[in-house]
Design a protein that fits this description.
This protein is α/β, with parallel strands linked by helices. The chain contains eleven helices and twelve strands.
Length: 335
């Protein structure tokens, strides 16, 4: 009987090879419940984006999301920004340190490592993680002790009704109801950089996701722009399925769209340009450098960029797209 149940769930009896990259898509019921109860900064990281099961509800609730995953599935944000690809355990936040995190990390020992890395290195102001309720227990793993004893969560939302089944990606066996009790753990950073109340006590809140099926999300709180994370290269990149392009190559591809976008006639910085044409922050910065170096934009008194006469002349041509191509053929764009 137990073996049959394990097979039906698709997790209990799976070998390490069968589990692969441990993609178990998050039920929207879980994300919807937490968003109705918790507000996060406007910018959020989802470092285990999978197939966008958490990303899409976050965007629908008004958040901008930085996305990454170990596996390149070609996922893009609502602004057209492609996911970053890399091992989160090798990631460095750069100037995105402190940005809120909302995720469903890999299970098992990797959950300990990933959450400890998040708190130690990325230092989110607030972090929400969907975990097995048993995550409260355990004492052998130093990373588990770090995130539950030394830097405990502030609140734990326990789902009184088990979530719809999270079958392993690619599972083609029998479908079954969930055999796992789950909870969303919420960490909040204190002013001194620590997490938790200091006495190892957190608030446990019982919630029934059925009661939040039609609940509105709380609005995003205070937030600002942050650059993407930086990933150290692994010894062998065996997960990427598309060629890695350099920033110069991205600039070559996007410069025409960036110049045509100048017709919007709005002051901009890299964040505004990034959203306007749907590119990564590093590409937006390089595009601004290219257009500035070629005399198409200049800064106004507020420190924002604005198209100058040359830039407006180029975009106002009768056939702007052809004019940009001709301009590109004659000029060397610095990136």
């Amino acid at each position: 009987m137990k073996q049959a149940a394990g097979h039906a769930v698709g997790t209990k009896t799976a070998t390490k090879e069968e589990r692969g990259d441990q993609l178990y898509e998050t039920p929207i019921e879980a994300t919807r419940t937490v968003l109705a109860l918790e507000s996060f900064s406007e910018i959020i990281k989802e470092p285990f984006v999978g197939k966008a099961a958490i990303l899409r509800p976050l965007e629908a609730a008004g958040y901008d999301v930085q996305i990454a995953d170990l596996v390149d599935r070609g996922i893009t944000t609502q602004h057209g920004e492609l996911q970053q690809v890399g091992d989160f355990l090798l990631s460095d936040p750069g100037d995105s340190v402190g940005t809120d995190i909302f995720t469903n990390p890999p299970y098992g020992d990797l959950a300990n490592k990933c959450l400890a890395h998040a708190l130690r290195v990325h230092k989110p102001r607030k972090m929400a993680a969907l975990l097995n309720l048993n995550f409260m227990c355990g004492f052998d793993d130093p990373d588990r002790r770090f995130v539950m004893d030394e830097n405990p969560p502030s609140r734990v939302y326990v789902f009184t009704r088990r979530l719809p089944m999270m079958h392993r990606d690619g599972w083609d066996g029998n479908k079954a109801s969930s055999q796992m009790n789950t909870a969303f753990f919420i960490w909040e950073r204190n002013e001194d950089g620590s997490y938790g109340s200091g006495d190892g006590i957190w608030t446990t809140i019982r919630v029934d996701w059925k009661e939040f099926e039609h609940a509105d999300p709380l609005p995003p709180g205070e937030g600002g722009h942050r650059s993407p994370m930086v990933f150290s290269e692994a010894a062998e990149d065996f997960t990427r399925t598309t060629p890695r392009k350099s920033v110069d190559e991205h600039v070559d591809e996007e410069i025409s769209r960036a110049i045509l976008w100048l017709k919007e006639m709005q002051p901009f910085d890299s964040a505004i340009l990034r959203r306007g044409i749907g590119v990564r922050d590093s590409v937006a910065v390089a595009l601004i450098e290219a257009m500035s170096a070629n005399g198409l934009i200049e800064k106004n008194e507020d420190g924002l960029w604005f198209p100058n006469g040359a830039g407006l002349h180029l975009t106002a041509s009768a056939n702007a797209a052809e004019a940009v191509k001709a301009w590109r053929a004659e000029r060397t764009v610095a990136a």
